[in-house]
């Protein structure tokens, strides 16, 4: 073996993964030995990487997981914790320090139910939301019936945040929607959750299709289909089907309620009510400030982002603007659609009951700038209840101090107090 020690190879492994994350596939592939260059040309490397990582969402954190030595080769595994799953990038180095082997291994995280869940009190049934090309699989969690089988249950449909979320809204080791489904079912409330269209049919979303997509295709259509499916289930009280949205799902919940006024009520968890572009800028500013002082690169990124935010504000009807000129590469069509359906205007016409919940440590949706607007808009309504949980983050998980993205990579559960507030509101309100 060469003089390269494991510390050298750890650094090489992290550099390789960073280059892949930054889409510098040519630079990453240049570290391969001759055999790997033949077996894994740049085009194949890109294809394999995207197939595994695109459905996993945004990166939360990255670090060397373990090292090993076998038959003269050194193996370094780098754990990439994405929003929806963890992926282990296993690299084999030869004696010259070149990469002679590569494996991308999705890491399954075992779910540990929180103490407030009683799995003996409910059952789960697999269902399909919609039909045809965009049908998505889901799970209906149903409380066990009483002995006379005459009981019907209130139902809740869960609507995800942004990105290609699975039915559990898995973020790192956390499964927010499974916590909600199992926690509420333990209290006699049925819950329907499902995989997002952009996850189940990820390969169908070409650049052309994404450029034309709005929140209607991404979220609203399947949410409405799910509500109708739940109403038809024999165990469900069809007049008591509610909709619970988290993050983006919460932001568009009033719009869903507007389209289906028979929904019994809306539960809004961390709902952004301001323009999306403003929230994006606020998030980046917060994240860059965590280290105390911004780097020159971060300052430049923020200045560029401010220009892109201003570009969104100035969008004209039907104007063609490359997504590269807009925040996070989101299309002009998507931003225009959100801007043409302001939540405050929808709320003025919406009479259904609402429960508005917010974490006080949430840096993605502001407990002041957003939650206070919900309060202002709805304070005169006697069928609306608002509650702030000071110690909870965007995932409604308990914590201390400033919230960070790394916090999402630590296993936790939706607070029991949140489950209790929702269940009581459903039964009383």
Structure in words:
By secondary structure, this protein is of the alpha/beta class. The chain folds into two domains: 102 residues, Nuclear Transport Factor 2, Chain: A (Roll), CATH 3.10.450; 239 residues, Rossmann fold (3-Layer(aba) Sandwich). It has 16 helices and 14 strands. Helix 11 runs antiparallel to helix 12. The longest helix has 18 residues. The protein starts with 5 loop residues before the first helix and ends with a helix.
Features of the shown structure:
single chain; 429 residues; alpha/beta; Nuclear Transport Factor 2, Chain: A; Rossmann fold; 2 domains; 8-stranded mixed sheet; 16 helices; 36% helix; globular; AB_hydrolase_fold
Task: Give the fraction of residues assigned to helices.
Answer: 25-40%
- How many β strands by DSSP? 14
What is the domain tally? 2
Strand numbers in spatial order across the main sheet: 5-6-10-7-11-12-13-14
Mean pLDDT: 90
Secondary-structure-based class equals alpha/beta
Outline the biggest β-sheet.
Answer: 8 strands, mixed
CATH architecture of the largest domain: 3-Layer(aba) Sandwich
Helix-strand pattern: HHHHEEEEEEEEEHEHHHEHHEHHHHEHEH
- What CATH calls the topology of the largest domain is Rossmann fold
Over the alpha carbons, how many angstroms does the gyration radius reach?
23 Å
The global form is globular
Q: Could you tell me the strand content as a percent range?
A: 15-25%
The CATH superfamily name of the largest domain is Alpha/Beta hydrolase fold, catalytic domain
Discrete helix count: 16
